[in-house]
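Duplicate of #3305? Posting structure anyway:
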């Protein structure tokens, strides 16, 4: 697949670039989490957080941020402007009112740039351009003296949401947005005229990793486009048909039109409004204070539910049909009346199983596996759970994963990209993340905190050195075991090599049992409360 090549290209020049992971550049990401803090704190504190954010970015900017990152812009959107905007309209972004014939680019975002165009917009794929024409009428004699094809404005943008990571941004195709004054006779004709706005974005970069697909792509796409109520066309740079297939259920709930493969499609597409680039708020999050209609991450999850529902109903029907077929075959074979009571008892035990809380272990193989997973399964069953072990592969249909998690009460998994599936859990269910040595910060930032925002009960289980496979590899006093922070501070390549790629977990079941018990009791209590609620 195309994206695999991309990874290899990426990994050579800069060794800290990730293949599998989200936990790169910790220092820079620290900045972004304080951006979030700024937003969630009461207004009086926001100034303080802004100062922390600015100083943090200022200190590390020379190491991580490219030339396009402009500190002056950051300062110009300082606290005075911020608080003014709060009073007037929290949701008003810099380009919320663009006049026709102009391009407005908001480059103040830490994670992405976004440009808005309005007027006579026409795509020109072969020059990676989107033109905005301000035409001069034929019959105006004055206009003939004006130089034809005069460029009024030229903006360049890479429509990808990891602006601060120059190494990955270097691989993203750049678009030219050009506003031109032209004689209307010179304008290229429209091959396809669209009555709805366009949203342009890139599916390059880290696409291929499920965390990045949701965090950098699908959620920002939701944030940017849900307000159009499906009346929007997606124009995709680095279009992959596997991605369209994988996310088709979701895409069809965001847009009712087929997406356009920008670089392949040399027809001229015409629009009257275009948004280039995606808005992004935080790790796997939707900040409702920045959304029209106060939409939140729960609304995003509701959209997932709606999106996967038809497919899941289909799967259930297929299974029922198969089960009936089996039953019929069994009857034909046995032809004895004894088969009837048998099927009754199995129905009875099924009902008991249904009342048991359901627990899913999202299992990894290779690194960061739970080596005593079968004992964990046994213990969970003893406690009273109905247990399922899920081994999602890259090719596993998301609807199938959604189905399992949506009907579960507890999800357990070791820190890694597959934890992104916590979003498939219903709010108020339990998510236990097993946190290997050296991954505390990343585990909480990328999954723990977002899970809390979704309304899950989150338990981070930070393993003790003895539960790590590294315990047998290094001396007890080695900083790798005693002080992982000192190692991860040395850089991404250390984190990756030592803690991510070569660590397994053997759970201390006695210690883990306490967490499982808590999760069990919480689930039972919750379902009792739910019942009471229903009876009232
Ligand atoms: C407020 O923001 C505008 C850009 O929207 C900028 O031109 C101006 O200088 C800012 N004012 C202050 C006081 O920061
Ligand atoms: C010709 O110019 C006049 C004003 O100068 C304008 O009202 C009219 O719409 C123009 N006609 C065309 C065909 O552009
Ligand atoms: C989309 O366009 C690219 C060219 O940029 C091409 O390589 C790819 O095959 C196209 N994909 C599909 C599904 O048409
Ligand atoms: C698009 O390009 C292909 C070859 O790259 C060509 O065969 C086709 O005619 C072009 N279509 C248009 C509408 O220009
Ligand atoms: C917006 O949503 C939040 C919770 O996400 C809620 O507390 C608040 O009341 C809502 N505001 C409006 C205006 O609906
Ligand atoms: C997810 O679970 C809820 C509650 O059990 C149910 O109402 C909903 O239909 C499920 N969603 C799908 C897509 O099956």
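Output from current build:
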């Amino acid at each position: 697949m195309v994206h695999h090549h991309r990874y290899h290209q990426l990994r050579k020049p800069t060794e800290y670039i990730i293949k599998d992971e989200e936990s790169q550049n910790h220092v820079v990401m620290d900045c972004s989490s304080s951006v979030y803090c700024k937003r969630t704190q009461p207004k009086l504190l926001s100034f303080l957080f802004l100062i922390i954010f600015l100083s943090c970015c200022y200190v590390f900017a020379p190491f991580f941020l490219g030339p396009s990152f402009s500190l002056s812009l950051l300062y110009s959107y300082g606290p005075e402007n911020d608080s003014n905007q709060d009073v007037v309209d929290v949701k008003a972004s810099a380009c919320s009112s663009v006049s026709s014939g102009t391009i407005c680019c908001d480059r103040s975002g830490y994670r992405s740039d976004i440009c808005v165009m309005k007027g006579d917009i026409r795509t020109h794929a072969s020059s990676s351009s989107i033109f905005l024409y301000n035409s001069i009428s034929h019959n105006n004699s004055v206009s003939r003296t004006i130089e034809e094809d005069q460029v009024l404005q030229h903006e360049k943008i890479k429509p990808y949401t990891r602006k601060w990571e120059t190494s990955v941004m270097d691989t993203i195709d750049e678009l030219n947005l050009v506003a031109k004054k032209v004689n209307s006779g010179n304008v290229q004709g429209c091959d396809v005229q669209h009555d709805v706005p366009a949203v342009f974005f890139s599916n390059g970069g880290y696409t291929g990793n499920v965390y990045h697909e949701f965090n950098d792509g699908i959620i920002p796409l939701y944030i940017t486009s849900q307000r159009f109520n499906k009346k929007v066309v997606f124009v995709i740079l680095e279009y992959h048909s596997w991605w369209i297939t994988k996310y088709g259920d979701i895409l069809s709930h965001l847009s009712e039109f087929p997406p356009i493969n920008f670089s392949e499609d040399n027809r001229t597409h015409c629009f009257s409004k275009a948004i280039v680039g995606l808005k992004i708020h935080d790790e796997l999050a939707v900040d409702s204070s920045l959304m029209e209609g106060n939409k939140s991450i729960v609304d995003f999850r509701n959209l997932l539910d709606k999106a996967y529902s038809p497919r899941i109903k289909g799967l259930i029907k297929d299974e029922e049909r198969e089960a009936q077929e089996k039953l019929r075959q069994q009857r034909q074979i046995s032809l004895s009346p004894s088969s009837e009571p048998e099927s009754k008892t199995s129905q009875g035990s099924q009902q008991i199983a249904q009342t048991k809380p359901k627990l899913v272990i999202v299992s990894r193989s290779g690194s960061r596996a739970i080596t005593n997973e079968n004992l964990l399964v046994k213990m969970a069953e003893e406690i009273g759970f109905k247990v399922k072990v899920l081994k999602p592969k890259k090719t596993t249909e998301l609807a199938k994963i959604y189905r399992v998690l949506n009907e579960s009460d507890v999800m357990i998994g070791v820190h890694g990209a597959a934890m992104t599936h916590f979003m498939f859990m219903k709010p108020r269910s339990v998510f236990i993340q097993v946190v290997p040595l050296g991954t505390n910060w990343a585990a909480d930032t990328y999954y723990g905190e977002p899970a809390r925002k979704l309304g899950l009960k989150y338990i981070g289980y930070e393993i003790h050195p003895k539960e790590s496979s590294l315990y047998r590899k290094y001396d007890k006093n080695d900083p790798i075991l005693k002080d992982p922070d000192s190692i991860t501070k040395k850089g991404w390549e250390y984190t990756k090599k030592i803690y991510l790629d070569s660590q397994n977990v053997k759970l201390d079941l006695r210690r883990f049992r306490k967490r499982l018990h808590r999760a069990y009791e919480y689930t039972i209590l919750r379902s009792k409360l739910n019942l009471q609620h229903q009876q009232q």
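Confirmed duplicate; merging threads. The first helix runs from residue 2 to 11. DSSP finds 19 helices and 15 strands in the chain.
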